[in-house]
Amino acid sequence: MKNRIIIAVFALMLCIFAVILICPADEKSAEEENRTLASMPELTKETVFSGEFEQDFESFIDDNLGFRSFFTSLNERITSSKGISTPAGRLVYTDTDIGTGTTQKASLLIVNKTIFEIFVKNTAHEEEYIEAVNNYAEKLDDDIKLYAALIPTQLEFQEPIYANMQDSQKETIDYIYNQLDERVTTVDMYSQLQQHSGEYVYFRSDHHWTPLGAYYGYTAFSQTAGMTPVNKDNFEKNNIPNFLGYLYKQAGAPEIAEDPDTIEWYDTDKDNEIELSMQGFENGEKIYYNGTLFDKTKANYNFFLSGDHPLAAITNKKNPTGKTIVIVRDSFANAFAPWIIQNYKTVVLVDPRNYEADFQDVLDEYHPDEVLIMNYIFTTTFEDYCTMLKDLYRAP
């Protein structure tokens, strides 16, 4: 009798799964996540033996289940019950990935309808980051000005009961700056962001800074580089409501959805005088395609530049005699780019996570006057990112 019950339950589960699988794909869930559904991968000997088919097929199944939005919501509610409640908020332990293809454990603090990443310094990886930046200082031509900037995150500027739950980002930034080659000019973005920390400079559901936070980072760089920053109030401000970011997905905190973020962006290209040319790779070969400064088909952080690209070259036709700067960066630069392009003829963004050629190729093609290495503080804890940053510049 017991075996029959088990068989009956198992058969019922198979039937339910079959019904869910054959139901039309839940396109609503994709719209909520602002992306397209995964398509059926190509079945070849190469994709099977490399494991690519199995990985892509799993994504296809996940995306094309019927009632997917229901199950996603249910999973978030289950996840929200996890974690450790403390007087300072709820702690959640999860995996994080900044686009390097690997994950590592991360700690998140949820309090006051805000999700904070908890910074835990890694001395060994800090040294690797320092070595990577100094590699650029050693190899770059002497006539190219080299800057370095590390961006703190919002937990650093909270009340001590919260901020003291992590290692000091200020101490880590100061230590790294002090170990850099003397030809590296460091940028103090920390002080500007601290001064304006009471404003909407970070998203509450995402690890990125807001366009306003990026503006203050740009202001700090302008001061260091001897430039006059543009006045943000000279640009029309627009709003994209109901933004729920990467940390919201990681934390499983449905209470954040009750008061979502708003992307308050400044139209720095109202006259359509800024052009974008993107560069990617296909089968190891460079490919080129056009981009946009503000992708109005997106309602998330990918609104800026349509997301991360191996290389993005931004040209300001209003400043034909201006300088060229290359920024070696992570995704924080996406919201930074609309500001800094105001002072340059060309801004070139290079992403170590997915740029497959050598950095010398970028130098040979664009002949920059300046190079800025800019990352958010957590990259100094990622071994794989530090390695990618160094390996990007392989040429002697």
Describe this structure in words.
With 396 residues, this protein is an alpha/beta fold. The chain has an eight-stranded mixed sheet, with helices on both faces. Helix 6 (123-139) packs parallel to helix 8 (169-179), helix 6 (123-139) runs parallel beside helix 14 and helix 9 (189-195) packs across helix 10 (211-225). The protein contains 14 helices and 14 strands.
Overall 3D form: globular
Low-confidence stretches: 30-35, 74-81
Helix content: 25-40%
Number of strands: 14
Q: What does the largest sheet look like?
A: 8 strands, mixed
H/I helix tally? 14
Give the H and E element order: HHHHHEEEEHEHHEHHEHEEEEEHEHEH
Overall average pLDDT: 87
Q: Give the helix/strand class.
A: alpha/beta
Supply the key terms.
single chain; 396 residues; alpha/beta; eight-stranded mixed beta sheet; four-stranded antiparallel beta sheet; 14 strands
